[in-house]
Amino acid sequence: MLEMKNVSFTVNVDGEDKHIIKNISLTIPDNKLIVITGPNGGGKSTTARLIAGIEKATSGEIILNGEDITTLNVTERAKRGVAFAFQQPVKFKGINVLDLIRIAAGKRLNIADSCEYLSAVGLCARDYIDREINSSLSGGELKRIEIATVLARGASLSIFDEPEAGIDLWSFRNLIEVFERMRKTIHNSSIVIISHQERILSIADEIVVLKDGEIEKHGSRDEVFPELIRASEVTASCSRQ
Amino acid sequence: MQKLDEIQKRLLLEVADLHTVPEGAYNIRSNSEAAGRRSTANIEITSKTDVSGIDIRIKSGTKNESVHIPVVLTQTGLKEVVYNDFYIGEDCDVVIVAGCGIDNCGNQDAEHDGIHRFYVGRNSHVKYVEKHYGSGTGTGKRILNPGTEVYQEEGSTVEMEMVQIKGVDDTVRTTKATLAAGAKLLVRERLMTHSSQRAVSTYSVELNGADSSADVVSRSVARDDSYQKFDAKIIGNARCHGHTECDSIIMDNGRILAVPGLEANDIDAALVHEAAIGKIAGDQIIKLMTLGLTEAEAEEQIINGFLR
Q1: What does DSSP assign to residue A118?
Q2: CA-based Rg of chain A, rounded to a whole angstrom?
Q3: Which of A95, A106, A153 sits opposite B305 (nearest CB)?
Q4: Which residues of A touch B287 (CB under 8 A)?
């Protein structure tokens, strides 16, 4: 379980304070898939990065499974069970897929076990295990490998920052299946997905709407999802006029 | 023949991956003396009579054979210049493993300047692996100045893998190659310098024959206060393809100068150079930290991959 208590994040731009996250409190319970959504620039990715420790909160507390992790760095949080999938997967030179999966698993997995994580994200493992993680891989392939590394971590809290960004429709359908599978096998762990996608929202247990750095809404999917759909239909009809 | 001690054996392992006596032809040189030699039916190794060094003659048609010619130095103050000439016949396919390890525990410089010349016959394929390594706690420098000259006849291919990862204080590497029609040269250089080490690597490749090609790629890391210069020139004198690439990571106060040079003397010469120098990308470190590595472990993984 993760608790964010009165978390704020402020940056200084040209001598002026910009409040990106404004005093948010949020609990992510175990065995739940939470989707954080909302307009661009609303603070979704920042919230994810604050949880992973990539950004440090200006004030407030972050508690993971009862432990205060607010002052811990990225590595320490990772070791305590936070996994993070980047919106833009990072490329390397000379590091291949097997290396990254082994680092993620924290042990020298054998090739067969490593391949399972690739198969789980719909990649034919044999074709990818030796591939270098560089620009020779497509956006969709990189994204799936990124997700495979999160699976390999076996973390208690897995965060996915806009997993749908930059991938084609075909890959996207696969991705939904991956999350649905994760949702089913979730056990004493939780999943947070930052997303705009209706299909992803539709598999959430809870939905959080983040706007202008504040939580506008937080409730079960059945509460929040229909409202969001109505709102988007209204926006769509407005734009048609 | 000299018997090898433990340090010399360790050096051999570092530079030639040798645990025991290698298969095939070999010549092991230790502190300027022969520590072992074997010729085979197709590969003959003989000592030079005018200068220090050996001639290696490989018969035409020799396939899937290897030659190991490692050198180890453990004596402080020792300076040597060695000439090794390889005469490779036609239609060969051979692997040549060279390399030099210096362990200097004394206060005087130890230096090995190895000049290797390769005469590669028509349609032969040569893979050349050269590793350099230094160790020892003495104040004396460990100096290696390899000179490599490659003369490639029609249709020949030479792949060179040159690695210097650790412990060499000062190195000036000079590599020259001339290629006839259809010949191909592939160079992969991996270099890492520490503390106040200095490394200069100069390439000059002449593409003289039609459809000859060269691909010279260097990946290097300069740490601490070390300095590197990479100077790669490709000269296209015919219809040819040339590519040079210098990809470097700087850390601490490391400095790197990359001087890629291209000279086209024929309208159908197609030459490309790329050079990039920078520190390790921050997002690479963060990504590996999210997988549970510390910052230092992340850096190590990135460097290891980069120099793989």
Answers
A1: H
A2: 18
A3: A95
A4: 86, 90
Residues of A in contact with B293 (CB under 8 A): 75, 103
Provide the token pair at B22: 């290698």
| Cα separation, A94 vs A35, whole angstroms | 34
**Per-residue pLDDT of chain B in tens (308 residues, 90 and over written 9):** 556 777 777 777 777 766 666 678 988 888 888 788 999 999 999 999 998 899 999 999 999 999 998 888 888 888 888 999 999 999 999 999 888 888 888 888 888 888 999 999 999 999 999 888 888 877 888 888 889 999 999 999 999 999 887 888 889 999 999 999 999 999 999 999 988 999 999 999 999 999 999 999 999 999 999 999 999 999 999 999 999 999 999 999 999 999 989 999 999 999 999 999 999 999 999 999 999 999 999 999 999 999 88
Query: Is ipTM beyond 0.95?
Result: no
Interface with A, mutate which of B246, B248, B285, B291 (most A CBs under 10 A): B291
CA angle A187, A190, A195 (to 5 degrees): 135
Residue B146 structure tokens: 């390899």
Chain B CB contacts of A103 under 8 Å are 288, 291-293, 301
What are φ and ψ of residue A193, in 5° steps? Answer: -120, 125
DSSP reduced 3-state for A92? coil
How far apart, in whole angstroms, are the C-alpha atoms of residue B66 and residue B93? 9
Between A54, A74, A93, which is nearest B305 by CB?
A93
Q: Do B306 and A103 touch (CB under 8 A)?
A: no
Closest residue, chain B, to A76 (C-alpha): B292
- Cβ–Cβ gap B305/A78 under 8 Å: no
**Cα end-to-end distance, chain A, whole Å:** 45
Q: Supply angle C-alpha B166, B172, B177, rounded to 5.
A: 115
State the CATH class of domain A2-235.
alpha beta
pTM above 0.95, yes or no: no
